[in-house]
Design goal:
Length: 72
């Protein structure tokens, strides 16, 4: 892998290199701007999703957004 192209920068902070894409909006973000979330299918499979600040609390994009709140 050559890195002669300019590294793609995070869409949120525009400072850090892109780590991966947000599962909600599909934009590219750095590791510190993403929230890692464990999702499970309910039948034993667990996988990791990454959501940006905007999408992590959006129930339409993140099916587990409601589960993030511990306070009631
Ligand atoms: Zn960032
Ligand atoms: Zn997003």
């Amino acid at each position: 892998m050559k890195e002669d192209k300019e590294a793609q920068l995070c869409k949120a902070c525009k400072k850090n290199k892109v780590f991966t894409t947000c599962s909600g909006c599909g934009n590219c973000f750095c590791e510190s701007c993403l929230h890692m979330q464990m999702d499970s299918s309910g039948c034993g499979s667990v996988w990791v999703s990454y959501y940006c600040d905007e999408c992590v609390d959006d129930e339409k994009l993140n099916p587990n957004a409601a589960m993030r709140t511990n306070s009631d």
